[in-house]
Amino acid sequence: MKVSVNGTIFEQKDALVSIADKAVWYDFGVYENIKVLQGKIMWPEMHTYRLFKSAEIIGLHIGEEKERILQWVRNYAEVQKLKDHIIKICVYGDADKNARATVYMFAIGLTFYPDQFYAQGVKAITYQGERNFPTAKSMDTLVNFIAFRTAKERGAFEAILIDREGNAREGSRSNLYIVEKETIITPPLEDVLEGVTRVLVLKLLEENEIPFKEERISKDRLMAADEIFITATSSNVMSVTEIDQQKIGAGAPGEATKQIIQLYRTMQKEYLGR
């Protein structure tokens, strides 16, 4: 698979990042994962908007317009004939002068999770840690990596990050929601990344008059929830039925979660034009 560098497509072996680049040393970069499903790029404008928002939060000057980045995404997907993939956009800033950044794009295969994950729910663990610049999708993802690695070692699908105040913020690669008495609760935006799937799900809740609110979620509140679900670009909406070997609610996907899973699937089909 070839790589796009500032809009020009290279062989992967020729698209190199220097070990001497200070942006690499200091994680002075932002990234995005854009899903391509059945050959269609899913919500690229929303992802590009967030890319620039993340860059603004950490003071990184990209040096290109959003529409130009979108053109690069569309061209890369067309030239590479992408069908079911994730386009990873990695933007490394100019660490010395903060002039024009370098924008890398490459594709990896899209993961399709087993149907049973959605029908039965998945296991998670809690992990003590929080991201720096939590509202930005920055390259500083060490805590995410270690948390997810720990989850895999314990046979879990995801790790829920618990901050220094004892609140559950987000998954290592997902946004987090609990259900309390038929109301959906998700951590406030000042504490978490505004995931694209999160934006879409909250829109669905509003359109379908499903009550929701943004509040901090203590670990005790998390474990006592009636239902828990997570959202992400690759996994969409998925129920969490066990955390730290403790069943959540009835230990199976609840009615609220199942409704949201179905609503999201319908919306995705409509976006695909099916």
TrEMBL record:
Cofactor requirements of the protein: pyridoxal 5'-phosphate
GO cellular component: cytosol
Keyword Nucleotide-binding (UniProt): no
Gene Ontology biological-process entries: amino acid biosynthetic process; carboxylic acid biosynthetic process
Keywords for the protein's UniProt record, in alphabetical order: Pyridoxal phosphate
SUPFAM superfamilies in the record: D-aminoacid aminotransferase-like PLP-dependent enzymes
Pfam families: Aminotran_4
InterPro entries referenced in this protein's UniProt entry, alphabetically: Aminotrans_IV, Aminotrans_IV_CS, Aminotransferase-like, BCAT-like_C, BCAT-like_N, Class-IV_PLP-Dep_Aminotrnsfr
Keyword Chloroplast attached: no
GO molecular function: catalytic activity
Family in the record: Belongs to the class-IV pyridoxal-phosphate-dependent aminotransferase family.
PANTHER family in the cross-refs: AMINO-ACID AMINOTRANSFERASE, AMINODEOXYCHORISMATE LYASE
Full protein name: Amino acid aminotransferase
Species assigned in the record: Candidatus Uhrbacteria bacterium RIFCSPHIGHO2_12_FULL_54_23
